[in-house]
Structures are given as C-alpha cells and as structure tokens.
Amino acid sequence: MFASLARIINKHPKTIIGTALLILIISIVLGVQSFGKLQSGGFNDPAAQSTVAQNLIQSKFGGQANVVFLLHSTRGTVDSPAASSAGLTITKNLAQDHSISNLTSYWQSPNPALKSRSGTYGLIVGHIKGDDATITAYAKVLINKYTISTPVYSMQLGGSAPSGVDINNQVGKSLGKTEGLAIPLTLLFLLVAFGTVVSALLPLIIAVMAIFGTFAELYILGSITSVSIYAINLTTALGLGLAIDYGLFIVSRYREELAEGKSVEDAVSHTIQTAGRTVVFSATAVSLALAVMAVFPLYFLRSFAYAGIGVVVISAAMALIVLPAILTKLGHGVEKGRLPWANRVRRVEAPAWRHLARFVMRHPLITALPVIVLLLAIASPLRHIAFSTPDERVLPQSTATYQVGNILRTQFSTNANSQINVVLGGKSLNPVQLADYSKRLSSLQQIDDVGTYAGTFAHGRLVSSKPRVNPSGSDVLLNLDTHVDPQSAAGTQLVKTIRALRVPAGAQLYVGGNAAALVDTEHSIASHLPVAIILIIVSTFVVLFLFTGSVFQPVRALLSNGLTLAATFGLIVWIFQEGHFASTLGFTALPINITMPILLFCIAFGLSMDYEVFLLSRIKEHYDTGVTTTEAVAYGMARAGRIVSTLAVILAVSFFAFSVSSISFLQLFGIGTGFAILVDATLVRAVLVPVFMHVFGDKAWYAPKLLKKLHKRFGVTDG
What we know:
- This protein is of the alpha+beta class.
- The chain folds into 3 domains: 461 residues, Multidrug efflux transporter AcrB transmembrane domain (Multidrug efflux transporter AcrB transmembrane fold), CATH 1.20.1640.10; 93 residues, 2-Layer Sandwich (Alpha-Beta Plaits), CATH 3.30.70; 93 residues, 2-Layer Sandwich (Alpha-Beta Plaits).
- The chain has 23 helices and 13 strands.
- The longest helix is centred in the first third of the chain and has 35 residues.
- The chain is elongated and about 90 Å long.
- The termini are close together.
C-alpha cells in the first residue's frame, strides 16, 4: 500500500502539487465565507423537554424573551418625566417593529419586577423572531439603533440574542489574537527544530492547506445543517498543530534518510513507508477520538467532530501525499537557508533522551511514583466540579451584554434572564385548575410570581387579574419570575422541584428556560457518555493493537490517558471554577461549561494517541530487529524523544494561545488542552512509558494466539 503510494508520488510530483494548489484556491474561496454560515448556539439537546418548551413558546406564544432593553436614568428615577418620555417613545417604536413579539415594558405596564431596587433602571423585554441566524442578525441591528447615551438617560441591550452578537464579535477578535501569537511562535520553534528555513516552512504550508480545506468543509456543512462558530477555533488550533506535527514528522524522517546516503527517490519512498504509515495510524486514532463527539445531540459538540475529523484527515492527506511530492521536487534543497545551529539539530539521535530512558528504567519506582502522585494531586479539585451552560458571563466584563446581565442579577428583585417557562399542553384548563396550579407554583420559596392569562399569582394567591400571557388554544403558558441564578445548584433544583409538582390531570408538562436547559443538557450528556467512553476504549484498543500487535499497549495507553485527563480536569476546576488567575486572564469564575469536559476528553485523548503512535513506531521498529524491549525503548526515545517534545511544544503553543481569548470557555479549552499535551508528551512519554516497558519487558508485546493471527492478517505493515 505505502510502497505503491510512494511510486506514484515519485512518478507524478508536478501533477500532485498542481492539483493541491487548485484545491487550495477553491478552499480559500469557500473558506472565507464560512463565518457567515456558522452559529453561536448549539448547547441544548434538541429533543430535551426545555427545547420542546422553547419550540412551543416560539410557535404558539410569540417566543421566549431573548432581548432586554435596559434604560438607566442618570437624573432621578425611571419615573422622572425625561426617563418616562424616553421609555414610552422607545416602547412605542418597538411595538411597531414586526420582528419583535411579546413586548413588555415598565412604562407600559408598571410591573415592579421591571424596575430596579434603586429606581434608576427600567426594563423593556421582548422576543426577536426567526431562526438563530435571523435572531443574531437582527439583534445586531437593534444594538446599533438602541444603544443610546444622552445627558438624561442611557440604554444598553442584553439577553441571549445580543449576547450572541457579542460572542460572534469576540470569536473573530480572539481568532486574530490567538493566531497572531501562535503562528510566530510556531515558526520560531520550527526554525529551532529544523535549523533550515526551507524545511521549517514546509509544515506551515501543510497547515495552511489543512486550515482552509477545513474552513471550506465547514462552509458546506454550515449550508446544510447547524454548525457552531466555535469550530473555527478548533480548526485553526488543530490545523496549525497537527498539520505541523505530521509535516515535521515526514520532513524529519526524509532528512534522516538523506543523511544516511539514500537517493531522493529512495528517501521519499522509505519515508512514506515508515513515517507515512505512522501518520496514517495517528490520524486514524485522533479522528476516531474526535468522531465520538458526534454521539452527543448538541450541535456544539457535533461541530467539533466535523471540524476535527476534517482537519485531521486533510492534514494527514497533505502530509502523506502533497508534502512528499514537494520533497521529491526539492531534493537536497530542503536544506537551504541553513541557520547557525543547523549541524547540531541534524543529528539523528538525541543522547539526552536515551540517557533519560535508561535512568528511568533503572529506577522505575523513584521516577514513576512522584509523577503519579503529582498528577493525582493536580486532579484533586475535580471532586468539587460543578457545571453550567454559557451565558453573557463568558464574555469580557467590558461588553455591554455582560454589564446588562450583571445589573439584572444585582439591581433587580427578579432577573429577566432567570425566568422559568412552564407550558401545559394536551388539555384545556378551566380557570379553577389554572388558578390552583399557579398558586402552588407561586408558593415555592424561590418563585417571585407566576404570570398567566388569568393574571399574576404570588405567595400562593392572586395579586393581579390583568392577563400577562395570551392563551393559545388548549395550551397554557406560565412565566415564573425568580431571583435564583439559573447556573446555580439552587436554580437546577428549582426546575426539578417544578417538574415534580403535580400538574392538572391530563396535562402534559414542559419546563423551559436557562435553568431547565442546564438540567436537560446535564442529563443528555450523562446519558450519552457511556457510549462515548466505550467507543473511545474500543477504538483505542483496535488502533493500537493493529499498530503494535499487543493487547497490553492499548491498556497502558488508556490508563495513562485517564491519569492525564484527571489532572487536566482538576487544573481547569482550580483555575476557572475556583477563580485562580481570574484577574490575570480576565475571566469571571463560573461553574465549568458542561460541554468542555467532553470536548477536552475527546481532543486530549485523541492528541495523546498522536504521540503514542509516534513514539511506539520507533520503539516497535527497533524491537522488530530482535533487540530487547529495554534497548528498543532507549533507541525509540533517542530517535523520537526530541521530535515528540518539539511536536508537543508546537501543538501546545497553538492551544495555549487561546489564553488571550476574550471568551472564558475558549481560554479553558486552550489551557486545558495545552496542559494535557505537555503532560502527555513529557511525564507520560518520558517516564511512565519507559517504566511500563521495563517492568513488563517482552510481555509488553503480548497477544493471545488468536489475536496474533488477526494482527498478522489485518495489521498494517510497511509494505
């Protein structure tokens, strides 16, 4: 297989390069349009009760509130003549806007919940109609029109729709900042690693092709289905990191073959049959790990599967086909642009890594035990992990939507963003049934009032007979105002209490709102997690078994990856939930975004397999010559240790660059993934792998007879 591919590449390099350039041009044309196709949501299960409630409210009751107009009176209260006049005028203008429904204004129906405790803030709340893309686009129009500052009053917009606008803006800014940091650092590391300008630039060329190719894929998918805008961030980080990983591995092996005196054609051929085989296995392992995210119904996670698989496959294809074609044409020109340290970095072996491997294997207990204890200590905060879904607090405190949300939480008795919506369907309720149920809901300690078509209920009694919600056939909507933070344990418990409350006979209950969405998302992820874990375990076992012929190597990889992930999760809880370095990094400490552990689990697991395959390829290659396992490990570390550490630093840099992002869960994603990469490539590969190999010896390659036959038949060889 690989030998045949090498012959084709050596025979038709110009055709391959020309085709790649054409594909790149098409990818750029499509890829630059991908941003307009992507969405900022995707954190909810479409089949969840809260989503069904949202859809019912959208179709029958004019939609849930998704935009808040916050008017601040700078001279007196919002009841002053100037503020009242402004509030009434804006309310009338919004009432005539056919893109807005369910408008409620303090100046139209003076509900005390719409006025701050100080009396200086007043609210207008409404719903922007349309799908996610339409809502976000129109929210931008409203922001531009109604963000007002005068000597008498000012107005800012908040709510989920304006937050989506701010998030989209911040994603673009963050992308520029992260890539502006990552690309120069990556080039610097490549120059240090290769020692020549030409060889250092080649992996970057592969990265550009991979990134724009995946952008084009996201454009096509975004035209067909819902795709998260955050997939862009994964594309750039993985594209820059993995494409460079594969490119560096191919170029390093090619230069090694040239240094041993092989011709250009033979060097390319042997590189494809050895390093190329490793790249294919690595790409397969990483892709399978990322594909697991498609198990979850949240399109935020599915989008990362789309982007991740795309960038991995394209990176591997470019490294396996296009890069060798370029090397065929360059020949010894790959050494052009030599830098002062070129002779030092061109040495095939790194003696320091050989010495480290032998030291670790001579002293397994005193080297492995501190590493295990350290990682378990870092993992300890994981015991206190709590979860949330994203709201405006993931944004910088300087953004308008963050400021509006903060005022709603601190200045109002009831938070407009915390409202819980209850839909009763399937049966027409008579006024007595509705009143009885509403009274029981309003008697709950955390509920401030319950608004229905029959009036408002508070503390177990009717306080106003003025309708707050229009009826819709047999379906009934009840809006529950609460002061409880929807991201808190009290908020999720309140939803569970409401769902446990007896409903009128024959009625179907649907509870919606931010707190309900969090409860449902937690349940959705928990219910799909066992399948995801099984798929990860099975795919890891199959790929590593086919690669090594051993049943112990996959088990060792699973255990070491589990230790790395536990430490990673502990670190992100310590930083992002407990708030360490919050002022330095500029984020608000919150419970962990519930999708992040899944994302980190799949991506960190996949990337750890990248280095697993790179290192094992050299160890197995030498072991197959007949040497002992101990000698094979020392050889593999000497040959691959420097490359693996360089790859890890480059890939970690592309993720650590997200620390300058202005969206907190992107910071979490970047720091968590970067940490996992470094731990895996250093403590795990340099210490735990050699210790395992030394303890098990030749048994590290053990497989039962039946599996040996399967490996002999299906395992991929160099031929």
